[in-house]
Amino acid sequence: MSLFDLPAAPHHFSPEHEAFRATVRSFAEREIAPFAAEWDEAGTFPRALYAKAARLGLLGMGYPEEYGGTPADTMFAVIAAEELARAGTGGVQASLGTLHIGLPPVLALGSAELKARVVPPVLRGEKIAALAITEPGGGSDVAALRTAARRDGAHYVLDGEKTFITSGMRADYITVAARTDPASRGANGVSLLLVEGGIPGLERTELRKTGWWASDTAHLRFTNCRVPAANLLGEEGAGFKAIMRNFNHERLVMAASAVGYAQACAEEAIAWARERKTFGKALAEHQVIRHKLVDMVQRVEVAREVVYALAWRITHRAGDEAALVARTCLAKIQATQAMEFCAREAVQVLGGMGYMRGTKSERLYREVKVMVIGGGSEEVLKDLAARQLGL
Prior knowledge:
By secondary structure, the protein is an alpha+beta fold.
């Protein structure tokens, strides 16, 4: 029995949740983990994996049945993120999950015709959806967007650049934040447009990264792209609020994933310490190593309970919006700090093997910073939490 296989608090999960956990764990162990190193070195993974994930219900969970989705609460999303992360490849997981940040604005704000055309093929794994918010000079400052869309008859003419866009090279549908009111330089005037991947004037450049090698990440340039006005999501100027709502779910999922990655590092370190012999005994028999292992277990368990408690509160609407936003920020910080600690210590325990490509710990050590920065850096999240708490 793994040190991490103790039952969760009974109020967190139902038998249905736990059955789903077992299914996702089996999928990750069978379809992802054995190929993680190979896909990382290749810088990509088979597009067929989307369809496999779709058949399992991973892509459609939480989406309406009329579009091919499966009803699911927040606890299911947390389970999926945590269990997929245990395969130890953030690039694959990040790419598989971009629909969950690219599609929600379409579902919430798109026309009935747009939703019926776009959502089902994405949930079936036939098409890929992505979200394009970040700009070369903006980072987390969404209100400072410079990409512009001006109305021209039945179209918007889109000009600007986006960067660090996960699935940006492959995406068939890209939800793009653009300024439709040139007179406004703040949060007002930001709108969302659904841009189709084959649109003339869209140039994609692949970016090379420290980690997440298996995930394509792109710099996007829009030059006189004519986007049908029917692809406006909601009303003009309503984009900023939709983006902020989207961030909350993204941060929760990233927190749950970070817990899974931290556990993957800890488990690899524990297994290595039990097997590796130094000075006539197993590495785990040295007190200083045992303390490292316990420190990792402690941080994983604390972060997991913070994430589970938050997911339960969101599912049962236990708390006002400001408090839940603050707790989401704190959960992501707690979980990514646990991941950062466990990745570092696991590499230390593995020694030379921890520096070799192919181990989970080496791969996740390279991927730590994108988890700490992505979805809002630690500094941004602390400041946001402070404002929500009235500090």
